[in-house]
Amino acid sequence: MLRLPTFEFLQPKTVEEAVLMKKEAGPDGMYVAGGTDLYPNMKRRQQEPQVVISLGGIEALNKITAAKNGTGATIGASVTLAQIAADESIKKDYPAVAEAARLVSTPTLRNMGTIGGNLCLDTRCNYYDQNYEWRKSISFCMKKDGDTCWVAPSSPRCWAVSSSDVAPVMVAIGAEYVVHGPDGERTVSAGDFYADDGIEYLSKKPDEILTQIKLPTPGNWNATYLKLRRRGSFDFPVLGVAAWIDWEGKTVKDARIVLGGVASYPSPMDAAKDLVDTSLDETVIQKVADGCFKPAKPMDNTDHGLAWRKEMTRVFVKRALVELAG
After folding, report:
1. Are the C-beta atoms of residues 41 and 122 closer than 8 Å to each other?
2. Can you tell me the distance from the alpha carbon of 53 to that of 75, in angstroms, rounded to the nearest whole number?
3. Which of 12, 119, 122, 154 lies 20 to 30 angstroms, CA to CA, from 70?
4. What are the φ and ψ backbone dihedral angles of 220, each rounded to 5 degrees?
5. Tell me: the pLDDT tens digits for 43-82?
6. Can you list the domains of the chain with their CATH numbers?
7. Chain center to CA of 326
8. Which secondary structure element, helix H or strand E, spans residue 25, and what is its range?
């Protein structure tokens, strides 16, 4: 049985208090919200904080404000995935966000896991997400304690995969994140929050807290999210497809397609530009699906075979666009 190591547990009541605690703890401190990512990582000795600072008791991070009067909704980073999936205002104005939250793991973990935790989810890899003794036996990987990426041994970078379900949707719809740190508060677009690197996968600094998610104003746009995994629950995505269309009548005014589970960050697809100024007919849908297939390069570090996963990119992008076309 894997057990948690010994650590000090702190429970701040405000964001400012949490930031101060992290400053005092230094590199030995880490924030935790629901703990569904951090605690398993600690059991496997992938992350080894001496001080864990809980954000669960900060009331300001546990609120959903519905969209109204021309403004978008806001979601506190400690709101659980189950709350988001069940919230009537989110389901009405942002159904893709509610659906992505609903598809994360199992009901038990959605009741614990938070939106902030899912958006900051550690990148995953079959060579990294093993217990300490297993990783030691093959020699540690670049992401923790070693200097080789076992997915691509000659590569100078880590190829661990972004497996968040909600992040691709946030990038596709153009959400913004509010982060708070020692230097105060700043806002960053969801697209700029992620980097294509398995180790340095967030632009958020370790001493900053993701406090709030700002969703765009509901308008003449719609979005959807489709997830591919081996089982109907629990599993991380081996492919996630978030698609967003801004309409002008029956014509596509703007469009975004973002893939999850195939790279170290939620990956925007350039092929989405081919949807603009079209009526989203069958021909253009097939063209864009083919265009997303070509750059998708899943690595051999998650479930299923590479060729099949790559082909599913074409299939799932097509399904998403057909859904949006109605």
Report:
1. yes
2. 21
3. 119
4. -90, 50
5. 999 999 999 999 999 999 999 999 999 999 999 999 999 9
6. 1-59 (3.30.43.10), 62-120+161-325 (3.30.465.10)
7. 27
8. helix 15-25
